[in-house]
Amino acid sequence: MQPKILLVDDREDNLLSMETVLESDGYRIVKAASGRQVLKILLSDFDFALILMDVQMPNLNGFETASLIYEREKLRHIPIIFITANNYGEENVFKGYRAGAVDYIYKPVNPDLLRAKVSVFVDIYRKNQRLLAQEQKLVAINRSLELEVAERKASEEKVNELNKQLLDNISRLESANKDLDLFAFMASHDLQAPLRKVRMFSDRLLSDYRQQLNTEGQLYLSRIREVSKRMQDLINDILRFSKISGESEVFEEADLNVLLKEVLSEMETPIGEKNAEIIMSELPIVPVNAILMAPLFSNLISNSLKYSKRDVRLQINIRHEITVGSGNGSGKEGETRYCRIYIEDNGIGFDQKYAEQIFDMFRRLHPSAEYEGTGIGLALCKKIVEKHKGFISARGKQGEGAVFVISLPMKTVRQEVTA
User: For position 410, what pLDDT does the model report?
Assistant: First the structure.
């Protein structure tokens, strides 16, 4: 922006002379012929870099005009150079400085001197403008920072409050889960006695009074026995599910080959009935709760046996691989070795869209009349794996078999390096 200079002189030729000298330097010149005209101009326009003012003027001289100008706070930053034809003594010069003058120029005006002095004050004006702009910028930045700090403080308070609520909710959920597990255990346990009596009396009726019952009566009793058995299986599964929460989280190094072979030995009869071929690769030693691994392997192998094809010999392939994954996303310190155990079969499979739902409690993709089961087995597997801080997933395709992947954490990379 062009610096503005206010020229004040009661003679037009003096104004024209100074304007001619200064206009070549690119200044914007505003002229006034009297002190009153100066004051009128400064009522609305006070952004001047400099005022060049003649001392001897009618009505209001330069000293009086300067005094009136500097009465206004907004105008005190404008420097005034007095232009005079008289060589005043020290007393009058001091009077001019006291009125607000910053310098004197004597007539006849030396163009080079005028241009040089104006240049100095214009340079000071420009620097002051830059400082003011910088100050305004800093004020805006400070205001923005204050708002940001206030927002962050409010956000932190909100986060702290949400964290507190989350911890309270977690505490309540843990308490509710414990109560629910205790209720399931007690309820299932209390159901055992009447259920045993139902099975016992139905067995006795069939053994002692079979001949006295007609075909329909025998059919009803057989159905009572079947339903009772299914209910017994359901209660046993619920009990096993509720007991997992109380199991110790202290894991010890265990040979998975030994644990798996024990399970296969116990399942020899159902495996033989299905004429299933078990293909088992060498498994590693992993820190686990050995008690929980038996129902994990048993349920997954039983699942393959249950959903095998009638016209194709069942093959169950059990293998593993070691992978490294980031457990918490924080870099190498969080990278953990995982033992991924694959239990793959060539059974009837399932639609992949149900891959997550099959681990829900009581979720069944097939009618219970066609395939026996309580709908708890895979939910039990998921809970066991999560107890080990691991993951379980499933991949399947309708008519082409299924693969269950168990991921169990081993030692972290950092532990192995420092060991």
Answer: 83
Structural domain boundaries of the chain? 4-109, 249-418
CA quadruple 63, 65, 70, 71: dihedral sign: positive
CATH architecture observed for domain 249-418: 2-Layer Sandwich (3.30)
Q: What is the pLDDT of residues 157-170, one digit of tens each?
A: 888 888 888 888 88
Does position 194 have pLDDT exceeding 70, yes or no? yes
C-alpha span between 324 and 331 (Å, rounded): 12
pLDDT of res. 412: 42
20-37 residue pLDDT tens: 999 888 899 999 999 999
Q: How high is the mean pLDDT of the chain?
A: 81
Cis geometry, peptide bond prior to residue 108 (ω within 30 degrees of 0)? yes
CATH 3.40.50.1000 at 4-109, yes or no: no
User: What pLDDT, on a 0 to 100 scale, did the predictor assign at position 413?
Assistant: 39
Q: Are strands 335-345 and 277-280 parallel, antiparallel or unpaired?
A: unpaired
Q: Return the residue matching tokens 């002190």.
A: 35
Q: What is the pTM of this model?
A: 0.48
